[in-house]
Amino acid sequence: MEGVDHLDHERRKAQFDVEAMKIVWAGSKHNLEVSDRMARLVASDPVFEKDNRQRIDRRELFNNTLRKAAHAWKRINELRLTEEEASKLRQFVDEPSYVDLHWGMFVPVIKAQGTDEQHKKWLTLAYKMQIIGCYAQTELGHGSNVQGLETTATFDPKSDGFVIHSPTLTSSKWWPGGLGKASTHAVVFARLITDGRDYGVHGFIVQLRSLEDHLPLPGITVGDIGTKFGNGAYNSMDNGVLRFDHVHIPRDQMLMGLSRVTKEGKYLKSDVPRQLAYGTMVYVRQAIVSDASRALSRATCIAVRYSAVRRQFGSHDGGPESQVLDYTTQQSRLFPLLASAYAFRFVGDWLNWLYTDVTRRLQANEFSTLPEVHACTAGLKSLTTSVTADGIEECRKLCGGHGYLCTSGLPELFAVYVPACTYEGDNIVLLLQVARFLVKTVSQLGSGKQPTGTTAYMGKVEHLMQCTCDVQKAADWLRPSTILEAFEARALRMAVTAAKNISMASNPEEGFSALSADLVEVATAHCQLIVVSKFIDKLQQEIVGNGVKEQLQNLCNIYALSLLHKHLGDFLSTGCITPKQGALANEQLRSLYSQVRPNAVALVDAFNYTDHYLGSALGRYDGNVYPTLYEEAWKDPLNDSVVPDGYYEHIRPVLKQKFRVARL
Amino acid sequence: MEGVDHLDHERRKAQFDVEAMKIVWAGSKHNLEVSDRMARLVASDPVFEKDNRQRIDRRELFNNTLRKAAHAWKRINELRLTEEEASKLRQFVDEPSYVDLHWGMFVPVIKAQGTDEQHKKWLTLAYKMQIIGCYAQTELGHGSNVQGLETTATFDPKSDGFVIHSPTLTSSKWWPGGLGKASTHAVVFARLITDGRDYGVHGFIVQLRSLEDHLPLPGITVGDIGTKFGNGAYNSMDNGVLRFDHVHIPRDQMLMGLSRVTKEGKYLKSDVPRQLAYGTMVYVRQAIVSDASRALSRATCIAVRYSAVRRQFGSHDGGPESQVLDYTTQQSRLFPLLASAYAFRFVGDWLNWLYTDVTRRLQANEFSTLPEVHACTAGLKSLTTSVTADGIEECRKLCGGHGYLCTSGLPELFAVYVPACTYEGDNIVLLLQVARFLVKTVSQLGSGKQPTGTTAYMGKVEHLMQCTCDVQKAADWLRPSTILEAFEARALRMAVTAAKNISMASNPEEGFSALSADLVEVATAHCQLIVVSKFIDKLQQEIVGNGVKEQLQNLCNIYALSLLHKHLGDFLSTGCITPKQGALANEQLRSLYSQVRPNAVALVDAFNYTDHYLGSALGRYDGNVYPTLYEEAWKDPLNDSVVPDGYYEHIRPVLKQKFRVARL
């Protein structure tokens, strides 16, 4: 069966140009070419092989990760890869490592908060990886509330430097990736204290380990925080614990781009607008949204292909059973996730644009749109990561029993992905920030201040509070304007109701706190609207390729209508639609699923993922699932011997009733 | 801090008698005493220690499991434990092993499908564990559709026996627990072929391994199917693969209780009613529902205690931050799960009663209620396992970043639990069976045939189709009759609509298939009603203990009203309640959460779980979370050396720019 394409019949059903869709997914012909080249480079290199992750212990796993990271750096240098190519290559190596934090957090924070002088010194070292850095913020007792950090950096005029100290157990730095074993340096966030006054949390560059023998420097206790969820997953990362016992650093290792301490111990704010930090935040969050679409698309790719291979029930006269993908229960769970993967891809693109736009505005000292940008990116981070985490697990369940095997690739994908719901802002905390902004926007609607950006729709308050949906037959739900208005009306009406309820409380803070659970739903409704509207916007653009736009239109409609069905209570209780219209949406959904069905395999082929990157026996491009599962099974260490270790000690005595003798 | 109870202030807030609640949770004073004694027996025995599971490789893990299983068997014999005690002891050992399948499937299937003679021979061996058995049904290509199994058992008159054979790769037995390494015997399900005719799937007792040296017998290929989801989790179980190459077994090893093959190769059905098999099914499913309440209660116990310890934000004037448990977002996610754990406990009790009732009816040849019992148990298995799996992961997220560490116990609990959604009937397949029964029941409503048991409410069709909810203020939602009627009306109206829609299709099967996704929702509504009504029934009974009933009432109302909020779309679109009444339910929920808040820690204490059984640094009884996390971290193998393996090979060359030389 080797070399046979078991999904060929599926691929021939496709009603659109898959190669053109690949370009749409990648964002451009150039992106596709780079991605494709880097993916193949990684897949063909034996050092990057990844199929034994679940079978080795943590020390070996970590050692392999170090080898891969070093090899990637070697190849990046040898091939003189561009920054874009290098970043893609690291992505396809597909294993969390200290390198992620070095490039993704250490370098950016120095860029954002360092002075020109500091850039010159530290970035030069970091770019060449002559030092390895991490980002040490979170503490054992302090996560979301950064202002609650306990580590202190006390100015010491005698040595013209700072004394970094961990005053309590809960002040131990805890979680920073790359900290435990690999990093030589960290940007440490600590309370700046000078002249007996606490100036709050600031960043300091601290050397942790000797550059000669990698031993921790005096006063520094550093280690790994232990095993995390999943077999391989994030266990290739050395998330670390770090304690300081009065560690001295020179004064110029405080990041002084935004504020500084003079030789005399005076605290001074620079005249650089603090808002500049927003640029980094937007950048990080758009990257997280891109990651979400990538992770969800991998999961749906595996589940769609396997659902086309797997057959169960429905055999007529001894013929083959039905493909699981033909069952409407499978479609109604899987296709909304496929549609979400595409939706998140396009909203990620838009966030990328937003980042450019914000950067331009910041440079022009234009800060008025920042609160809206903050709310929008916080909300999209929360929405996309939550849906993706749940969606991967749903895809795993959609693969039935075999999805529970590590060879399916899905347990690993899930376990490695879920931290995204917590890091860079807990998803619920972020949604409450969004809600706070929405409530404020609503309260200002009468004031003449026009809401902007993703909240612009709130300016149509008079219309949206009283409009009625005009859907009369199922196909009416295919009109983008109808969908958009329903989502806008729902989001606005929920926000208005929430604002009203808060205003009835004895004070706004208490009201906000008591109604928090409702406010999370208000924020969710707003964020879903953003994704729907950006998907609709995408479809207004020119999209080349035979049938490509039609497929995307179907996915966009599935995305919107499946949300409408899932949150029907919102739409009905706000009077945006009638129960009858809700039922019509459901009817239209069924029709859309049947239109996607013949295109499903081609729609996941468009992601252009290599079998190496997918890492799944179930998601193989050629659909040759069962022989792969069978062969992989025998590689398990338990199969190294036919009779298991422990037979003579622990099985035979049971069978031979050796314990009964012990009964006196 | 050792010995201090950090949760003492929480425990003193409780408004009810925790010891009395422990008895309610356990089911009786006797149950509590046995559970408590067995839990302590396990917790105090060093062989049963479990805290290193995530740090060892699979061979060592499996070897440890064999040791624990043998030691448990030794203790069971030494202490002459009763069956009840032995089963509790195994539960608290809390590690999946071959023993589960031996006692849970091998023995019961022989009991249910064997003849008296077969019982005498095989059960005697099995009870003494002179043989170890498993249940070999599922195949690589065949899961839910048992009728599609491919393994053959062909009658061979010459040898007066059967030839067991695996004709294809997809016919390989795949998944059976205990099969891979430990079992000496299996009940193998295979297509019975005699005289050239295929009589469908039947069970056969097959010896797999020599009782002398544990080597597989000729013609048998057997092994483990490889690593599964999670670090420890189900990897202590040897789920297996098994292939037969024309293996001969004697004729009397076919399980002949329900049908048999004569010496001449004639196939005969016995006159034992086939419905008797239902008894076993009800038994297995009630056990699964009990497991669900146990797993969900463990997760909520961890999350509630940690939420009382964890503080974040809300510090005033440098005082302590707020307990996370005080945030209404945390309460609105956590308390419905706590309420579900209790709800599932009571519906499990009721299923236990149902099992006794069914057994009595079967013995009296009374089969009329069986379809309803089947639908009810299938639905409750599906509902409780899905909610529990999602609920554990939600509890993990509610513990923030630290929930991602294996020392939190939650990743392990999740990974070991999720297969329950798939085994013993895929949850979606089961819900469709429920829906099929409901649609049929609806279609017979006019016929004079009265629906029984959990569908009895459908007999009130005229009232339920037109009744209107009379809630006018939030507290009206506390009336059990009001809640019950809303849930009954919702379930019935959804079933009626679905039946109507199906009847409009060109044929019923096509209609059923096209509307499957809706039908899953119909079945869910019905199953939620069952749980709600059994919780309400429980509260009609006498419940002793100061404040105990009041707490259970609050939990019952939270269970029902949080479901109403979650599925608001159902209630509104069927016109069971108005949007205003939905909002009032939400208002009442908030009030209920604040009433549960001071009792939350005591409500999870009532589960009476030992720290050993919980296996969680976050869920410790004494709340001493941070020192435990800190100490556990240093036990990770990565911390065995300060400088990690691979430093000289893979880190130093990066830092020292050794790769740059390679660039020519």
Which residues of chain A sit in consecutive blocks of at least 5 with pLDDT less than 50? none
The portion of residues forming beta strands of chain A comes to 5-15%
The total strand number of chain A stands at 11
Q: Output the CATH homologous superfamily of the domain at 278-457 and 464-605 in chain A.
A: Butyryl-CoA Dehydrogenase, subunit A, domain 3
Net shape of chain A = globular
Give the CATH class of the domain at 278-457 and 464-605 in chain A: Mainly Alpha
Query: Which CATH architecture of the domain at 278-457 and 464-605 in chain A is right?
Result: Up-down Bundle
State the helix count of chain A: 23
CATH topology of the domain at 278-457 and 464-605 in chain A: Butyryl-CoA Dehydrogenase, subunit A, domain 3
Q: Multimeric state of these chains?
A: homodimer
Average pLDDT confidence of chain A is 95
Distance between the amino and carboxyl termini of chain A = 61 Å
C-alpha Rg of chain A (nearest Å):
27 Å
Main sheet specs of chain A = 6 strands, mixed
Largest interface: A-B, 139 and 140 residues
GO molecular function (chains A, B): acyl-CoA oxidase activity; FAD binding; fatty acid binding
Active site (chains A, B): 424 (proton acceptor)
Domain Acyl-CoA oxidase C-alpha1 (chains A, B): 278-439
Domain Acyl-CoA oxidase C-terminal (chains A, B): 480-656
Summarize the structure.
The structure is a homodimer of 664-residue chains. The first copy, chain A, has helices at residues 8-13, 18-26, 29-43, 58-78, 83-93, 98-113, 116-127, 277-309, 328-363, 370-398, 410-417, 427-443, 461-466, 480-503, 508-514, 516-540, 548-566, 568-573, 579-596, 600-605, 611-614, 625-633, 647-655, and strands at residues 133-136, 152-156, 161-165, 173-174, 185-194, 197-207, 220-224, 240-244, 247-250, 259-261, 267-269. By secondary structure, the first copy, chain A, is of the alpha+beta class.
